[in-house]
Amino acid sequence: MTDSMTGSAAERRKFHRVKKEFITYFEIVESDLDVNLAGKMKSQDISTGGMLFEGSTMLSMGSVLKLDLQVPENKKPLRVFARVVRLEEITEDIKYEIGVVFVNLTDDQKRIVQQILGQQTDTSARSTPLQTS
Questions:
Q1: CA nearest 99: which of 43, 51, 54, 45?
Q2: How many angstroms separate the CA atoms of 125 and 4, rounded?
Q3: Pairing mode of beta strands 78-91, 38-46
Q4: Cα dist. 80→7, 92, 94, 96 in Å?
Q5: Domains annotated on the chain, with CATH
Q6: 51-88 confidence digits (pLDDT tens)
Q7: Which of 23, 57, 77, 118 has its CB 3.0 to 4.6 Å from that of 68, i.e. a possible disulfide?
Q8: What element of type H or E holds 87?
Q9: How far, in Å, CA of 66 to CA of 27, rounded?
């Protein structure tokens, strides 16, 4: 099953993405599926608005994840929350690309993400607010 983005990705993106690979641990905190799932994936790219990662776990659109970004430059992981907005099956039932947007980033979290990107600190970067139902 593939749920790819349509149209030009560059036209839809609000944030500049940087290719950066690091381990990301995740835990589903909200999902349409009745699952309590955790695991790890490898990041593909990151921006101040979200990230793309690859792994062997199929997640559902709209799921909210707790992520621990294991960035080599940081001594401790950066914990953030994100909502799944893109799913693409790369290899049937084996490998998936998952795009997420960050939700409710604090100014400190934004600053750390910007440091990961090698950007100047700008606390005006926006994240998607977390809406609970």
A1: 51
A2: 26
A3: unpaired
A4: 28, 29, 26, 21
A5: 16-117 (2.40.10.220)
A6: 999 988 888 899 999 999 988 777 889 999 999 999 99
A7: 77
A8: strand 78-91
A9: 5
